[in-house]
Amino acid sequence: HIQRRTPKEPEVAQLAKDPAMAASIHKLEYFDIEGRAEKVRLAFLLAGIPFEDVRLSFAEWQTRKPSTKFGQLPMLTLPDGSEEAQSEAMLRYVASLDGKLYPSDPVARLHVDEAMGLAADMDTAWGPCFYISRDPVRFGHPSDLDEESKTALVKQVREYFMATKFPGFMEHITRILEGTGAFLCGPEPTIADCQMLPTIRYFMRGIADHVPTDCVDAYPVVKAYVDRCLALPQLQTHYEKK
Ligand SMILES: N[C@@H](CCC(=O)N[C@@H](CS)C(=O)NCC(=O)O)C(=O)O
């Protein structure tokens, strides 16, 4: 059984009640976390395109996994029923339906892609800090590592990241925003903001051990940017639910 969350926005709720219309809206499947799907959810919301926000439990995932393209989530079902993978492809696809979130001007587009590259670099740089707690063997540690040593190891790599890598990313983002104003690529949000916002917020949400929730406070330009994104009217209902 797949748990479905009927989107809260009245228009979408109405669409979902009509089976013919419900079948014509996009369906985004992921786990009940922000993770790699959040940027796509934000793009749908900013574009005002109705979508079904399906959140699978880990038990439901076991059943669903074999029928996914690459054995991974998120999966996006298009109105014609075809099922597609890869969150960054989904992000650009949603933006191309909308036309505003991903500019067609080559240089403006380059800047969006550049900012997306920076967000992706931050995710990639954090990767080992996340996966080492799940699978220390992958990083050369013994399979019988005791819990105490594992905790110390995770603490060490995460504190090292926060001290040596995190500040550089915050400084780069600050410099971009100082040049562009409200959002990463100018006065209006683009898919670069859809990608960057969840990336930055991950560190502020208290979901990663050894990362202080006030870690962005030392970077007021970035903090103000996060607040500005969260205040976007199209995202209000979404963030109220959290
Ligand atoms: N590049 C893919 C990566 C997808 C991915 O890594 N999915 C993970 C969750 S974030 C997954 O499905 N893990 C469950 C599994 O592999 O069983 C994307 O961005 O969509």
TrEMBL record:
UniProt xrefs under SUPFAM superfamilies: GST C-terminal domain-like, Thioredoxin-like
Q: GST C-terminal domain: from which residue to which, for each copy?
A: 105-242
First and last residue of the signal peptide: none
MF term (GO), any: glutathione transferase activity
- Every copy of the GST N-terminal domain together lies at 24-102
Q: Which GO terms describe its biological process?
A: glutathione metabolic process
Q: What is an example of a Pfam family matching this protein? A: GST_N
Q: Which InterPro entries match?
A: Glutathione-S-Trfase_C-like, Glutathione-S-Trfase_C_sf, Glutathione_S-Trfase, Glutathione_S-Trfase_N, GST_C, GST_superfamily, Thioredoxin-like_sf
Q: Which PROSITE patterns match?
A: GST_CTER, GST_NTER
Protein's recorded name: Glutathione transferase
